[in-house]
Amino acid sequence: MSQMMHIDNIPSTPGKFKMEKSPYNRLRMHFSLAKLTFWSLVFLGLIFVFFYRSPASSSPVSSDLSRRSLRTSSYGGPAWEMRIKASAKVRSRNGISVLVTGAAGFVGTHVSVALKRRGDGVLGLDNFNDYYDPSLKRARQALLERTGVYVVEGDINDTTLLKKLFDIVPFTHVMHLAAQAGVRYAMENPGSYVHSNIAGLVNVLEICKSVNPQPAIVWASSSSVYGLNTKVPFSEKDRTDQPASLYAATKKAGEEIAHTYNHIYGLSLTGLRFFTVYGPWGRPDMAYFFFTRDILKGKSIPIFEAANHGTVARDFTYIDDIVKGCLAALDTAEKSTGSGGKKKGAAQLRVFNLGNTSPVPVSDLVSILERLLKVKAKRLVMKLPRNGDVPFTHANISSAHKELGYKPTTDLQTGLKKFVRWYLNYYGNGKKSAQ
Ligand SMILES: O=C(O)[C@H]1O[C@H](OP(=O)(O)OP(=O)(O)OC[C@H]2O[C@@H](n3ccc(=O)[nH]c3=O)[C@H](O)[C@@H]2O)[C@H](O)[C@@H](O)[C@@H]1O
How sure is the predictor about 340, in pLDDT bands with cuts at 50, 70 and 90? Predict the structure, then answer.
């Protein structure tokens, strides 16, 4: 290799260059060495100043960016990428490769297991937040690991991470289930709903519109968008401009945001309006779950009552029926039409009710639990608080039936029996109880 020399002296064929010996040349050589030394020192000085004063170490924003990239680099590495590729690998003919956000959540876990078992590629993403007991999410994560689903720990707002995941896997679909759920909690922590259900959704859609190929997206909306509607059963065409909670408003906003990304970028988007989903591995913040816990503990059960002693009812929907609806939505999702952030044609935009079409009063839910647990509940009937709850939900599922072949088969008695069996097994027959 030719030694490092001043730029004018470097020959086109390294090693052929010979320095001449005359005194004038010697003087000239000393002079050019001094010049070389001087400019090298200047160059080194500039490099030092540049890195020492670089914005990454000065303004909070860019230092945050460098921190983010550091955080992302902590995700990186060949072993990590190998796990991701193995998890997302499609193992069945015509299989799909799905990024499931909120994979350690209740619906996310069941959907991920079902996809993996039928040979699809599945990669999970979850931030394992502490909205409810994170140990339950970790237990679901262990279950997923046993079925071959890797769950990356991260937030849907982490753009760098999401981009990295799409660099590693060309996902054909995104099952976007990560969200701040819960109607009543919105009055305690409104920011969490904006962070996850608005900013988080937009971030996921921003990534999806800019990757090639664009995935098709199926995401969790909510029956709560029907808000104060009195016309029952609720149909997808009914008004949804009267949300009764911030949670419902963020889900409604999500449906409007989906329309925008479909219209501008050609993203294929399907919103699923879940109706009070319940079942094994469920959410401790939901009534069926904490009623079970509190009946076993002998604590009072607050049963909400509508005005004039009206019953409060829900169209409770068993998780296995919901999973079938989710997979049918994925399988019937058309491809997105955009590429490089540009739409090439009209893209599919859908919304479906996924309910059970048979609302049950909350008081009946408690009676079923009493029979299954063989413990009398301490009922405390109270007026429906102004906390975002609505008196009833009832799904018209004819559209999901027609387009997705959706047909719920599990009644509340059967579904709760399966839930109670799981609950007693998981918490050790009520000795160890949910927090
Ligand atoms: O259908 C949906 O989209 C929503 O279903 C549930 O929301 P919710 O129906 O309020 O479910 P729970 O919180 O389990 O309440 C079930 C019923 O019990 C009632 N309830 C709740 C709590 C309580 O202390 N007492 C009581 O009677 C509620 O008013 C409601 O009628 C989920 O929590 C939401 O994330 C989901 O989006």
Answer: confident
Pocket test for ligand 1, best of 185, 352, 389, 393 (most atoms within 8 A of CB): 389
Strand bridging mode 173-176 / 150-153: unpaired
8 Å CB contact between 226 and 278:
no
Q: What is the pLDDT of residue 239?
A: 97
Complex ipTM value: 0.98
In 3D space, the residue among 121, 335, 345 whose CA is nearest the CA of residue 215 turns out to be 335
Contacts of 421 (CB under 8 A, 6+ apart): 280
Task: Mark out the alpha helices in 169-235 (DSSP H runs).
Answer: 190-193, 201-210
pLDDT at position 46 over 90: no
Q: Which residues of 359-384 are buried (b: 16+ CB within 10 A; e: fewer)?
A: bbbbbebbebbbebbeeebeeeeeee
Give every CB contact of residue 25 below 8 A, 6+ residues apart in sequence: 19
Residue 183 DSSP SS3: coil
Q: Ligand 1 test: best mutation among 315, 362, 364, 381, most atoms within 8 Å of CB?
A: 362
Sign of the four-CA dihedral 378, 382, 384, 385: negative
Q: Which atom of ligand 1 is nearest to the CA of 313?
A: 31
Separation of CA 112 and ligand 1 centre (Å): 24
Catalytic (active-site) positions = 247
